Amino acid sequence: MQEPQQPNEPANTADTTATPEVMPSIEELLKQAELKAQEHHDAWLRAKAETENIRKRAQTDVASAHKYAIENFSTALVAVKDSLEAALATENVTAESLKSGVELTHKQLSSVFEKFNIVDINPVGQKFDPHRHQAITTVESDAEPNSVVQVFQKGYLLNERVLRPAMVSVAKAVEKA
Questions:
Q1: Cα gap 123→157, rounded to integer Å
Q2: Regarding predicted confidence, which is higher, 9 or 34?
Q3: pLDDT in tens, 71-124
Q4: Which helix (H) or strand (E) holds 27?
């Protein structure tokens, strides 16, 4: 069993040779804090400048994207226009040559539409969909009520988004007298 230590005696006699810790002066602490604050301020300014540069770069990129978004589509349509102009410039036009030229131009235009995911909406016989169709009239028909019976003008989708709704007439039930 150990004897309790006296309050005036050191706990460990081997530690009597250690040097006492020296606290830095208030001026030194203040100087260190000011240096850290300056470092943080400089880092904040650099981060703020970098953020502003990224924002400006993003604005430029978005403006360019809007300006040149349809460049590929426009380039593809130029070939179709060239074909139409060549057909109009032809001197000795017969009905057959005109028809074959129009068919080739239509085929060119259809391939451009396919390349850019533009799809026809031709809904004859389908159920009327107000998101894809515009009803011009309703007609009495033996067809299922609320189905498309005639298309006056085809509609178009661009990547499943409606560019133009199809103009249609919609069936209604035949009234029995």
A1: 12
A2: 34
A3: 888 888 999 999 888 888 888 888 888 888 899 999 999 999 999 999 999 899
A4: helix 26-68
2-16 core/surface letters (b: 16 or more CB in 10 A; e: else): eeeeeeeeeeeeeee
Q: Which two tokens stand for residue 19?
A: 């040097």
Question: Can you read off the two tokens belonging to residue 136?
Answer: 């011009």
Look up residue 116 and give its two tokens. Answer: 């850019």
Instruction: Report the C-alpha gap between 129 and 123 in whole angstroms.
Output: 9
Phi, psi for 143 (deg, rounded to 5)? -65, 165
Check: pTM over 0.70? Answer yes or no: no
Q: Which domains, ranges and CATH numbers included, belong to the chain? A: 118-177 (2.30.22.10)
Please tell me the predicted confidence (pLDDT) of residue 124.
Answer: 92
21-28 contacts, C-beta under 8 A, 24 or more apart: none
